[in-house]
Amino acid sequence: MTTQARRQRTAASVEHRFHNAQGAEVKTRDEAFASQQEVSPEAVSTTARLELHNGATVTWELEVRYNPNTHPYVVLGGQITGTIAGPPWNITGGFIGDTLRLDATRHDGTATVTIVGEYQNPPAYRGTYGFNGATSSFKHTTVYHC
């Protein structure tokens, strides 16, 4: 390695900066990827608004809380309202990625719904849903809302 190449390599190393998950500059790569113990659960969740359509009569509004630091995104909770029977329904789990799975329970605990789908463009999921353990009773398209 020439002296000039060594100098360029050293200069490039000095310019490299590391940032942790909160955006703060840190000194080492290990600090950048270290687990942040003081982060509250709310700090690692965000909300997406989706709308499920099944023909002309069914429209559900879904507010999904998920962890943006995972992929597929792990669903942490949320709520379904709209024309679904006996709203609101509490979203209890699932994931959002190349495929979609949302599990929910009616507010009084008497029924469950599972929504599954595959990603398509423009951003939406096409798939099926069903009640009380079924996942393929009804077809749907679920789109993102900004």
Number of strands: 10
Order of helices and strands: HEEHEEEEEEEE
Taken as a percent bin, the fraction of beta residues is: over 45%
Number of helical stretches of at least 4 residues: 2
Q: What is this structure's SSE topology?
A:
Layout: H1 3-15, E1 18-19, E2 25-26, H2 29-33, E3 46-54, E4 58-67, E5 73-82, E6 89-96, E7 99-106, E8 112-120, E9 124-131, E10 138-145
Antiparallel strand pairs: 1-2, 3-4, 3-10, 4-5, 5-6, 6-7, 7-8, 8-9, 9-10
Which short descriptors sum up this protein?
12% helix; two-stranded antiparallel ribbon; mainly beta; 146 residues
Concise account of the structure shown:
By secondary structure, the protein is mostly beta strands. It has 2 helices and 10 strands; from the N terminus they run αββαββββββββ. The mean pLDDT is 83.
Q: What report would you give on this structure?
A:
- It is a single chain.
- With 146 residues, the protein is mainly beta.
- It is built from 2 helices and 10 strands; from the N terminus they run H-E-E-H-E-E-E-E-E-E-E-E.
- An 8-stranded antiparallel beta barrel has the order 3-4-5-6-7-8-9-10.
- A hairpin with a 2-residue loop joins strand 6 (89-96) and strand 7 (99-106).
- It is elongated, with a radius of gyration of 22 Å.
